[in-house]
Please model this.
Amino acid sequence: MSTGLLAAGATDASAIATKTYTKPYSKSANFYSKPLGRCVKTTLSGKVTFKHYYYKQKGAISDAFLGVKLINPTMRTTVLTKCTGGKKATVTKMAMTQRWYESTKCKLNVAIAAGYQWTVAVTPTVECGKRKAGTRATTYAVKANNYTQSNSGRPVGFNGEVHIKYNTALCLSARTTVTAYINNKSDSGTNTIKACVKV
Model:
């Protein structure tokens, strides 16, 4: 725990008791391919760790977030015959991509840890227009019902600090893309999945 963080140039600003938090997330979205007759359920799970303090200026308090990182950001796809009440099914190949960015203020800059198989590239986003995102893509050329992309450690971080309305969640968005193959046919779908955290 640390104290005494002050906003530069703001004589009436102060920060109250910086603390570190770690919050789990697990969110899912579906993509149905009529040509393939398959539903692909995508689940993102892991944890978000961050530092937080209450920022006070001119009598108003806001939430400040910094040191934001993803821990073990895992992407899993499961194949079904349909999205509601479907039975297990298989495809012959699966390509999976997750692209992460901060979407509450669109200000934090993505940073990739050295040695991890992630890239940083400018990509269109739903909330922030064109924005740098941390991207991880994997292709599995094997017939299966489910596929898991594991990313151990803390491969994705966000540089900078944001102040948001008091008692509001900070949201990180992941743009997921899945391409399913059955022999010589394929189809792709995308979703935006959010991991939102608050103290």
